Fold each of these.
Amino acid sequence: MKTTTPRKTATKRAASVATAPDLSFVIPAFNEEANIAETIRRVEAEAARLVPAHEILIIDDGSRDQTFEAARAMVREAPVRVIRLSRNFGKEQAIMAGLERACGGAVVILDADLQEPLSYLETMLEHRREGYEMVYAVRAHRTDEPVLKRVLTKWFYRMISIGAEVAIPPDARDFRLMDRRVVDALIALPERNRFMKGLYGWVGFRAKAIPIELERRQAGTSKFGFRGLLRLGITGLTSFTDWPLRVWTALGMGIAVLSILYGIWILVKTLIFGIDVPGWSTLAVAVFLLGGVQLISIGVLGEYLARVFTEVKGRPGFIVAEEVSGEGPAK
Ligand code: UDP
Ligand code: MG
């Protein structure tokens, strides 16, 4: 087993610069045994048509099926490198593992289920020639998704855009072509809590969006359930916003001012009309409401603190268990 340090990766990349391909494909795959061979074949055919030299990096994100074996079987047929992570670290980390190892002058990130039509590659390369350093795909519509998912996604992007330093396009995909400069900038970011869709925007560069029509997943089911998306959403919010930490100051001040006014009102009323029977219901509601508000604010604080905790621990975002390519296992 081998952990990765940025330095090691940099050396590895430097060593292969002489034979650097024009294009590297980074394909994260989690339980995609039914798709991976076909995906590699199609990418290979398309890439061979478009650029003189390319490489295909498959990152097996701790699959429990035969994804690794299926991908490894392809190394004789295509310029494939298979990187097996030691367990499931999530799509964002799998992408990072690929980006760190990609040698190409440009890198394309692609899903392993072929939902993203490869026909857009040509347009992406054209825009790159026009001078764009990042060309990314945006879903033309989300009509294929359940209503609840659409509503939650919309709210998520609204929340993440409040007071945002950079705009995070709501329907952008990971499917994108990035110049080496963009890739190097992404790799240089030290954070472990990674929300890639935010980081792509954060690094800047000349970016161009192209609307795409998604196809149906080739085989298997989506790997992102509600919990997975929720976790990713919280990672996104905590790494790109700080307003959830601050709203409590304003809310607290508002409640304090109202309480003072209410206190004055009770004082005046008592002086004029005398003491009456205290309102227990008002008291109970106020106690529960404030208890709830306080617990929520502590919870929010906890979420941010948890992120700080993971960053401070400094564990690597992923661990590479094994790496194979046509030239045999990587040293
Ligand atoms: N994926 C991954 N690790 C995970 C979950 C997903 O590498 O923990 C990969 C998956 O194999 C696929 C891509 O991320 O190549 C997108 O996943 P999926 O198609 O399930 O997501 P959806 O298209 O439904 O949003
Ligand atoms: Mg998919």
Amino acid sequence: MRVLHSIAEMKEERRKLRGTVGFVPTMGYLHEGHLELVRVARAENQHVVVSIFVNPTQFGPKEDYASYPRDTERDLAMLKKEKVGIVFMPGAEDMYPARYSTWVDVEKVSERLEGAVRPGHFRGVATVVAKLFNIVEPTKAYFGQKDAQQLVVVKKMVTDLNMNLEVITVPTVREPDGLAMSSRNVYLSPQERKSALVLYKALTLAQTLWDKGQTNADLIRREMTALIESEPRVAGIDYVSIADAETLEELPRIDRSALVSLAVKIGKPRLIDNIILAS
Ligand code: PAF
């Protein structure tokens, strides 16, 4: 496994690769969810490149950029076990040199849900992902369904900018009790970890109501919200959304593929999760 720290090195190595390249962009502090992306990439491609870069431009001024969990040694050991060929770990000064001034703004889909609560977040995500795609030149790039809106934004960017790659969605990996894997789960105290299950319970409730024939999205949102509010450690609900899976516009009635998503604060940590109800 080669670990490359500069854009120039990565580009040089890329020129030498023949055949398909599967790319998994990450911010490190890897878990089973990331490893699943790597495994799918490995099964579908001749080469696998994983990037580890905690991207400063996707964090708001009051967010956890400085304290975002990092453990490079552990990450590299995990990737070596998965037989990854190249790990790309650029420095922030290489990615965003002095006087950097170009940004990718994917309008509308970036403005809702996470974008409404975290202004500028998806501008940072789209910009860094576009840069990484230009540097790594992958055949296919792999993203987890857990960050559903990120996937919608990245797919729209790839279509709108005629980028020459395929974006692959990999299902969310969950703990045995249903909690979606996330690098930020490390922030949960043991009590909060138990309470965090309410996100999965609310999504399961939506699925059950939908399976029974309920299509009234307002009613499902209300039932989900009531369930979440009944959990004492819930410190706030940013949104409970049932939206068109492509445009992310809220639906009054589920008459097409719907993204059911939610963002909830359990104590201090803020967790997101989602499911798709396919019509
Ligand atoms: O999902 C993430 O870890 C990040 O948003 C990504 C795609 C690596 C961009 O920084």
